[in-house]
Amino acid sequence: MIYLDNGATSFPKPKEMIEAMDACMLSYCGNPGRSGHDLSRRTGEEVYKTRKRLAGFFHISDPEQVIFTSNTTQALNMAIKGVLGRGDHVITTSMEHNSVLRPIRALAEQGVTYTIVPCERDGSLTLSRMEQAIRTNTKLMVCTQASNVTGTILPVKELSRLCRKNHILFLTDGAQGAGHLPMDARDFDMLAAPGHKGLLGPLGTGFLYVRKGVDIKPIMEGGTGTASKDIVQPRELPEGYEAGTINAPGIIGLGASLSFVEKIGMEAICGHQRELTQMLDCSLRNMKHVTVYGPCDCRKKVGIVTFNIEGYDCEETASLLNDEFGIAVRGGFHCAGLAHKTIGTWDTGAVRMSVGIYNTKRQMEIAADAINKLAKRR
Length: 378
Description:
CATH topology of the largest domain: Aspartate Aminotransferase, domain 2
CATH class of the largest domain: Alpha Beta
């Protein structure tokens, strides 16, 4: 199998991650922060190591600003619902994942207003449009670092500066950026990111970074291992926002995966993935009956190539690539309907191929050849 669905989750996973999770579940794996015995303390120490490692990787000054979540969706919901209330206005873009758009739409029922700024056909964003959308009651701006549909990189640093100039909070969705692009959390007020994609960690892991001074209310109440006599949810980071038992084995595995990513280095990862993306993108753009979406310049996107073959339904293309050629891709609307409307695939959907660090040049050649054969067969 040639795996080209890294935009959904990375595969394979580093053996170091599997070994770390096995060691946890076989040797200690107590409930961190809930007991004082050796197994609980050991688990808590290992979880903190991952918290500290994430803080270092993303240039976060205090590990306590890292809140562990089960995925990016949970982190985005915590951030969006944690800062917005009746009378507030939020700005976002048409290239966002439903993990941004649906929480914002749900808040409209509670008196929050929103503006969705349209992006260009290739998924790029004009900064002036975001600035023009600002109102006197705008409290939050949310933008993905890179589109999960086209891979288009959006100008999050510039948007952050715009927000600070106008005293607006800025939240970045790092689902397709973390581990694929250099990222400094100090550029943002809040950052939501997965552990299981570019950071190569296990499914069911993610985190939310919250800048010091940003006040967010917890969206879930429960046990925290702290202030147990008080029936009011504590607001201290991170415990007050990690209600219930955390996924300790997964978090510990994420720490091992992150260590593996650090050893390779972001420069090497970015260079490798850009080279593979360029090969695949250029090959497909030169094929008859194949339409490629997103930027032509692969320096303007992460490792995603999205396309359609004339005469084929996108789900059919994905199925044929799997069944006949052993290539794993994703066809459909990628939980981002407005993004597909933006790029012109609202009625058809599209096929997404997303590369990772384990992919090779030879695999890109095989994938391109398979798509060419399907296009000729039409």
